[in-house]
Predict the 3D structure of the following.
Amino acid sequence: MKNGPEPASGASLAKVIKPCGAHRNRALTRQARQLGFAGLSLKASEIFFLRGETDTANLRSIVTRLLDDALGEAARLEVGTTAVPAGRLVIEVARRAGVTDRVATQLAESAARSGCRIEAATGSRFEMTGAGELSEKDLRFLVHNLLCNPVIETWSFGEVQPGFTSATTEESSTVEIVPLCGRPPEVLARVNNERALALDPEEMEAVAQYFTAEGRDPTDAELETIAQTWSDHCSHKTFAARIETDQGEVVPLLRQLRETTREMRAPFVLSAFDGNAGIVAFADGVRLAIKAETHNHPSAIEPFGGANTGVGGVIRDVLAAPARPVALTDILCFGPRELDHHDLPEGVLHPAVIKEGVVEGVADYGNKMGVPTVAGAVLYDAGYTANPLVFCGCVGEVLQGYDKLSGPQPGDRVVVVGGATGRDGIRGATFSSMTMDATTGEVAGASVQIGDPIIERLVADLLVELLDRPDPLVRALTDCGAGGLSSAVGELGETTGVSVDLTAVDRKYAGLQPWEVWLSEAQERMVLAVPPAQATAVVERARHLGLSACDIGEFTGDRRLLVRHGTKPVVDLPMEFLHQGRPVRRLRAKLPSPDREPDTRRREADIPKTLLTLLAHPNIASKEAVIHRYDHEVLGATVIRPMAGSDQSGPSDGTVIAPPHRPSGFALGIGVNARYGLYDPEHMAHAVVDEAMRNITASGADPAQTALLDNFSWGDPRRPETLGDLVATVRGCCAAAQLYGAPFVSGKDSLNNEYVASDGTRRSIPPTLVITALAHVPEADRSIGTALRGAGHALVLTGRTTREFGGSHYNLVTGNEGGTVPAPDASAPARYRRIHALMREGLVESAHDVSEGGLAVTLAEMAIGGRLGVEATLEEPDECSALFSESLGRIVLEVREENIPRVLQSLGDEAAVIGGVVTDYHLRLGTHRWDGTALERAWRGDA
Amino acid sequence: MKPPAIVLTAPGTNRQNDAAFALEQAGASPVCVDLLDLPGRRGEIERAKLIVIAGGFSYGDALGSGRVFALEAERLLGDLLPQKVSQGTPILGVCNGFQMLVRSGMLPGALQHNERGHFECRWVSLQPSSQLCVWTRALEEPVRCPVAHGEGRYLAGNAVLEQLRSEDRVAFRYAADAYPDNPNGSVEAIAGVCDSTGLVLGMMPHPENHVTERQGRAMVTAQKRGSALPLFRNGVAAARAS
């Protein structure tokens, strides 16, 4: 298994082994047990490889000063071979050369500061006991799931070879010519496949035609640039496609969403579906930028790095608005946690491992950036086993310089700031537009990036300095995301043309091919258009902060994309072909025909047990084990937190953010319910928009000043049924936006979330739409939580309950089938506005919406949040429906006795007092009674 | 006159604005100075009447929390911080600032990985327990505020613990010894300690995130009270007296 580069001779190699401590060993042993390896115990150490012309005394001083911890087990310095303790299996892991490694970089830097010049690399060492019984296959599974990710690390039984970054090869300037002109379709298809371009056959044909007309073949970099720019990830070719259905052609999906927003003429929308993020300004005049992205494919193969850079990427989108990031969201979808690892599809990581890595990745980036992660959801479904979903969102406060961004002018410099460029994440855009199979983890190795949030923290500080002023030093900017410089420079120079020299790009290490520099998705980089007079100042300021910064060329005015490597031409393409040359995709959709007949079947259930089972279902159960790993307090602006009640014991609806020096703020609400999507995609769209609107309304935000974000994660749109579901969902989104008066301002689609097993069977995710609502909170001091506040208060149910069980969690936990997905509630928008008015008058103590699991779950959660009791009576239409139906448009309000008449007067027959709050911690619904502690035990599980 | 205060940061610090806001609320006049701005802005630190070392992830905490911050501060400031203490300047290190003070030897003990092995953010109640410490002296009620850290488990040898107790240098204890009240498994539920002068306080929780009524609105009840503003007022009063 040893495949790392050999260390260079001459310099001495030392190895420091530092035991991790009990917390890490306990966590590993617990995770191993979760994966079904009960008898195993693990002991982990960090390894630091040090190489350089130095002596043992110096090395010892490095260990003492930079690695040893007071009161911790001392680190061992070893030169030569390590003895393997008897009876134990030792596995060593080393990070691959070239993969971002902040620890190694810092170690070398700090050692140099104290006068010792060394190279550093890192790894881990695991000693296992109780592994004797394991088969080779099980051991390999364990190693790849728990100890090492081969995408970024190498491993070995016993000693591993370190991956010193400098051990890579020499600089190269090879530009390959790819013969396409006049070639038949089979050859084009082979090139498409071999280079993983993920282009449609018609698109390959258009590329070949272009170059045939030019009388030359493309370079490797030109072909890659086109593939990145034309990928679904970058050009949204499905959302722009011409779609034929049985009912005729539909308006392209993106245009439907855009036009819906335009027709609504909401005064608070400043920018929708344009640039990196949507921008709104509510009544307080504060301009907010919002964006949400997915990072599904990378998270499937390297969960920590994938989720980590997903957060980093969406923060850069908001930085590019330009805005100062102030809040993060994350919506995560995983396979079942208890899955037996023998039932896993080949090459797929275990859902528990994916979850652990993803949560740690989100936490690491957000916490280190110092931006609070405040809203989200975690869902489980077998459909997400091979394709986990990671949605990351970010809200920012727009910088003053926004008004002065004129776009690049000919003569402006192209300045890249942030991290240096390495061989990370090459071909991310095309990778994310492909279907995965058992070998994806191996071939896509280079597609995964590792982030460095501290660099991005400094990039954010730099951009605020450059742009939060009336006379910004930058005329345009964008982030390096999928496609790296090829997308960012190509996009920024679209209207002017641009010429850059790749030799000017700062590299992490030598040995990169020109096309690799051009395509690298090394993280934490922004491309700026800077007036020539300011370029030196911008570069110097960035370097002062410790960032990489380089001036790589200029915006020209000839509307061509020119890329050189020194004097060697690498790319020479007209912007028009690059951005408008892609043939419009033509697709067929088969629209779904959902069952919407009124449901006449009464349902029965063991009600006491059903409620406890619902509370314990992972979709409904407490997410505190995840939430508390995110810093939701930094910036001091969090008013309504993701956990409710003074013990943080209950779930929140929306969260409210308001800086302490300002009376107003904003709320974030999330709607997602893929189970509805399986039965009725159009009504799912209504339902999740309603959920997001309920969340922000319940938290005290103004539903009349709310903007929406859409994120679609879908299967392969070339399958007519899958596309039909998408068409129906977009139709539902547009209708819902109009109904609620809440325009979409931004969105993103992630398609091809499918996995092809080795036997050829395909697995697609359930159609998953995530709606994020961003709403104005006029008075943050009047924001509302979900936790009950006082005994003696009344509980008012608003909205109507009908028998709607299609896709419900009642069906899921009781094994029932059938029923209709909750129908749109046309009266909901007006009612939410009246509820908001009541909250502004101070007449509502707490509020919680009714969602998965129905009213019984809502009331239980309010009780748990406040650790108070509830007594309520329930009638229509029947007990089961009253308790567990998931009809839309319902919010429970806690109201003081004296305020009941005013509340009922305002809400008319859309509200009814159903019970009240009592001191004793229990829930009584009709004839059924549960102890508060029993509810809490079910809901919190082993959290 | 408002006493001039410095919020000291390093690349990766992220709660400096929160700390500056709290200092303003308490009547000080704060500015942020980063280690990158040295030696140019050393004079501002020399003139400061109060110093807060803010929380975050200085240098990514790549070699363990606060270590590089402490080494770089020593390289760039020499013994300026100990000198300031001998001149009577109160210093507060919060979270990463506490970790830095411990790594630099200005406060005793060690801050290790949380017992549960991961980052933890939640509100806690703190019992002020030192009359020596200028920051906690005469605080009348517990302080409620959030923790947000991965390496906050305070540990010290028995001799050090005995010394801290006998010299009245345990500044804050978590409300109870068990998780989640004690969110990281700190020995004797210690959340903050001070130096032998009482001027230097290091604490893991974030008092700067509970200085307005609204920040604590959802987290405070009749039984669980406690703004952290009096803590900062204490610090500002001590700065005025110095």
Summary: The longest helix of chain A spans residues 720-740. Chain A touches chain B through 57 residues (CB under 8 Å).
